[in-house]
Design goal:
The complex is a heterodimer. By secondary structure, chain A is of the alpha/beta class. Among the domains of chain A are: about 5-80 and about 150-220, P-loop containing nucleotide triphosphate hydrolases (Rossmann fold), CATH 3.40.50; about 220-280, Alpha-Beta Plaits. Chain A contains eleven helices and 13 strands. Chain A is elongated and about 70 Å long. Chain B has two domains: about 1-265, no CATH class; about 285-530, no CATH class. Helices cover about 75% and strands about 0% of the residues of chain B. Chain B has 26 helices and no strands. Chain B has helices at about 5-15, 20-45, 45-60, 60-65, 75-80, 80-100, 105-110, 110-115, 125-150, 155-180, 185-210, 215-220, 225-230, 240-260, 285-315, 315-320, 325-335, 340-365, 370-375, 380, 390-420, 430-435, 440-455, 460-475, 485-490, 505-530. In chain B, helix 2 packs antiparallel against helix 6 and helix 9 (about 125-150) packs antiparallel against helix 10 (about 155-180). The chains are: A alpha/beta, B mainly alpha. Chains A and B meet through helix 2, strand 5 and helix 3 of A and helix 15 and helix 20 of B.
């Protein structure tokens, strides 16, 4: 599998604000890649740099084998983009906007267009300024999904969509993946990423702090264990077991967190102590995320995009 | 009153947002009034010398059509002759810009929705905008009046000068307040309000050039700009005229409040319509899009200029008849020199005024390049295989073509109506040539806007300032005795004296090449910068 996107050491500052601080990112061809981070962590700036709208101060980026700054026009033949904040021309209708963006990209696939307008239940005759946020989002999504672009760059694409439309989007994303197209999906909605993405990168203050499949990332974080025991240890004792922390004892119940590599040792210890009930909960993406965003740490700071 | 709740807070916000715009505009108005008065007084220090220099002004109805009547044959009246009307127009524009910025623009951009959800009464945004605009008008007028008195001009006359600006400005606040409620978009409100300024100017020009006592002369009392002129500072000093301006302010705001109490947030009097579900053939690329978005502007301007051109053309008869006195004509021809007859001098001056307005329309279209960027539309387009140069070029192209179309319309209408009104008026061929001959200067201003928009979106609106300075320098530079090289900076200085003079081909070519160079430089810069 070749890489659709490779970015290394990307830096971009706006005045004194550093938006990207040595960002590395790799997205393989044909995968749906989640790009996670809170507001202002540099997601949109990264996407704009990948589109060649911004010129990076340092570092290299290659998208579909091309330099986005120098070969922007050629590159754009093969990609489609949904901006984070969808704005439409106030006097053009939704239908006109979809056609316009399609024609700018070289043509409109009529069947796919009709299918998407139907699925997203869009009223195409309304003027841009009359649409709600969700409907503006639909216009941009239809325009992007109706293209036959090899790469889709989606910046928080479900913002403003209702749950029914979010489901339609998920279905369409599955279809896109089946076609072998690549998607970079920026989001801070973890459930969406968890459902749709093969791999994720977590960005913080302009840097990717973790990247990998969800399974790999989970391996880096502790599993929560809750056990009912006949022989309950006290907190101090349990805390001395290898890789175990965050211990609480409540009657016959012990709950603790354990690093993935020490899970076996812990289970053996619990077995010796007459375990009568056991639940193991792998970390949710939310926990993975929060673990990398300990707000008390001095490294955390908001960076406007 | 709960409907006014939050007015003070919104006013503070508006003051904070306009802390550069309003003081800079007032400063500009003061420089205009005081600088021009000072320079005129240097040339005509007393009433005797003034009276000798006045023959030229009183006799030339073309000049009266531009600037309104002269208050009295004194040095003081002469010192403010041009700035009464120019200042009244500029104060009106400042008033309408301030009112619109804090009402319809806020609503159109969706910010008012956020504000209205707070403890903010329904009238508060309008009330704060009107208060700020009235304040700006009064401060500008009062400072100008006080400044003139400080220069040693007559006290009561200086007060009348302030009244003259304030009358026009306050009336415009009222008209703008109503316009922003009636129209449902920022652009629509601008069309109504700027249209009102244009109409007021034309009605005034028609009234002031008619014989005193005639019905047409009385018509001048229907125009707020006519009132500004008829205060006649340092002459009749009609201070009561201020009451008319206050009257329009009260009526306009009352009407605005009536509309405001009946409409939804975001709506005007006209409901939003739906449109086609598919794009037409022409909407296929950047140029098709830019042209489509410019259509409304084009239609509005064509309608306005056909009406304006018809008025200008129809004035040809009264201007000819006022100059019927053979002695007067002799004097005029001596003064006019190569510029020819009184009709020709009048047309040449009017054409230059129209050209600057048309340049403003073109600048507006070019600056949509940065407006689209600010709104976030540009990234959608540039994420497709559209070349930056193509996107830039489409906006600049409509900005170049629009003035050419509009000046053609003006030339045809003025010539057609004029030659039917008066046998002495220049024919269609001549007026068309005179209109089109201004295009090189217009294009230079368009080129400046294109370069600024291409290079630096933040400072792109400076293009308006450049146009204003070019106009004021060309218009007032000689009177204010600015050095020749400063006057030469205005592209309008280098235009041919048409009709009546000969076509300056070299200058026209040089200006056109300069415009082309500016456009190209903008394209290069646009290709190299970040698009946000």
């Amino acid at each position: 599998m070749t890489d659709a996107i490779t970015v290394s050491g990307l830096r971009k500052a706006f005045g004194r604000t550093v938006a990207l601080d040595g960002l590395d990112l790799t997205v393989a061809e044909g995968e749906v890649h989640g790009f996670l981070g809170p507001n202002g962590s540099g997601k949109s700036t990264t996407l704009r740099a990948l589109l060649g709208l911004l010129r990076p101060d340092a570092g290299t980026a290659s998208v579909l084998g091309r330099d986005p700054w120098h070969d922007a026009t050629e590159l754009h033949r093969d990609l489609a983009y949904v901006p984070g904040d969808v704005v439409l021309w106030p006097t053009l209708t939704g239908g006109e906007t979809i056609d316009l963006l399609g024609r700018l990209r070289g043509g409109v696939d009529e069947d796919r267009r009709r299918h998407l307008v139907e699925r997203f239940e869009l009223d195409e005759t309304k003027k841009g300024k009359a649409y709600s946020k969700g409907n503006r989002q639909k216009v941009a999504l239809i325009a992007a999904l109706a293209s036959d672009a090899r790469l889709l760059l989606l910046d928080e694409p479900t913002a403003g969509l209702d749950p029914l439309m979010e489901q339609v989007f998920q279905d369409e994303l599955v279809a896109v993946r089946r076609d072998g197209r690549t998607v970079l999906l920026s989001s801070h909605i973890l459930s969406e990423v968890e459902r749709a993405c093969d791999r994720v990168s977590i960005v913080r203050a302009g840097k990717v702090v973790d990247s990998g499949s969800l399974a790999e990332l989970r391996g880096l974080t502790r599993t929560r264990v809750r056990a009912s025991l006949t022989d309950v240890p006290d907190v101090a004792e349990a805390s001395r077991w290898p890789g175990v922390g965050d211990v609480a004892v409540d009657g016959t119940h012990l709950s603790c967190a354990v690093e993935a590599e020490h899970l076996g040792t812990l289970v053996a210890e619990l077995a010796r102590r007459g375990v009568t009930g056991l639940t193991c909960q792998p970390p949710t993406l939310e926990e993975l995320f929060l673990a990398r965003y300990d707000r008390t740490s001095p490294a955390y700071e908001e960076v406007p995009t | 009153m709960t409907r006014l709740a939050g007015t003070a807070e919104l006013l503070r916000l508006a003051v904070r947002r306009d802390r550069v715009l309003i003081p800079a505009s007032i400063l500009g108005l003061l420089v205009l009034a005081l600088g021009s008065a000072r320079a005129t007084l240097d040339i005509y220090p007393d009433d005797a010398t003034a009276a000798a220099g006045l023959g030229e002004i009183i006799a030339n109805p073309a000049v009266v059509a531009m600037y309104g009547p002269l208050g009295s044959p004194t040095a003081d009246a002469l010192a403010v002759f041009k700035t009464v009307m120019m200042g009244a127009v500029l104060t009106s524009i400042l008033a309408l810009v301030v009112v619109r910025r804090h009402t319809r623009t806020e609503e159109d951009d969706g910010r008012l929705e956020l504000v209205s959800a707070g403890v903010v009464g329904r009238w508060a945004p309008l009330a704060s905008a009107v208060t700020l605009a009235v304040g700006a008008v009064l401060v500008a007028s009062a400072l100008a009046g006080a400044g003139l008195a400080a220069l040693g001009l007559d006290g009561r006359g200086s007060l009348a000068f302030a009244v003259s600006w304030a009358t026009a400005g306050l009336a415009m606040v009222g008209i703008a307040a109503l316009a922003v409620q009636v129209a449902s978009t920022t652009r629509g409100a601008g069309g109504l309000a700027f249209g009102a300024v244009g109409a007021a100017y034309l009605v005034r020009a028609a009234g002031d050039t008619a014989t005193e006592g005639s019905a047409v002369h009385a018509l001048g009392w229907l125009s707020p700009l006519g009132w500004a002129g008829r205060v006649e500072p340092y002459g009749a000093d009609r201070l009561w005229v201020l009451g008319l301006g206050v009257g329009v302010l009260v009526v306009g705001v009352t009407g605005a409040v009536a509309v405001l109490d009946r409409r939804d947030l975001g709506a005007g009097l006209l409901p939003a319509r739906s449109g086609p579900s598919r794009a037409g053939r022409s909407l296929g690329g950047p140029l098709g899009l830019a042209a489509r978005l410019a259509t409304g502007t084009l239609v509005g301007w064509v309608v306005g200029l056909v009406l304006g051109g018809a008025v200008v053309g129809s004035l040809m008869g009264s201007i000819g008849s006022l100059a019927d006195n053979p002695q007067m004509r002799q004097v005029l021809e001596a003064i006019g020199g190569s510029a020819g007859s009184v009709e020709e001098i009048y047309l040449a001056t009017e054409t230059k005024f129209v050209a600057i307005a048309v340049a403003a329309a073109g600048i507006g279209l070019v600056l949509r390049l940065t407006a689209a960027e600010r709104a976030g539309l540009t990234e959608s387009v540039l994420a497709t295989p559209t070349r930056r140069a193509h996107w830039y070029g489409a906006h600049v192209a409509v900005g170049i073509v629009l003035p050419a179309v509009l000046m053609t319309v003006v030339g045809l209408v003025v010539g057609f109506v004029g030659s039917r009104t008066s046998a002495a008026a220049p024919g269609v061929g001549e007026t068309l040539a005179a209109s089109l001959a201004t295009l090189p200067a217009v294009w230079v201003l368009i080129g400046v806007a294109a370069l600024l928009a291409g290079a630096t979106p933040r400072f792109a609106p400076t293009a308006w300032g450049v146009a204003l300075v070019a106009f004021v320098v060309g218009e007032l530079g000689p009177t204010m005795q600015l050095p020749g090289w400063v006057v030469d900076l205005s592209p309008f200085t280098h235009l041919s004296q048409l009709p009546g003079g000969s076509f300056a081909a070299t200058e026209a070519l040089a200006l056109t090449l300069l415009a082309a160079a500016l456009v190209l430089a903008g394209a290069v810069a646009y290709d190299r910068r970040d698009v946000t």
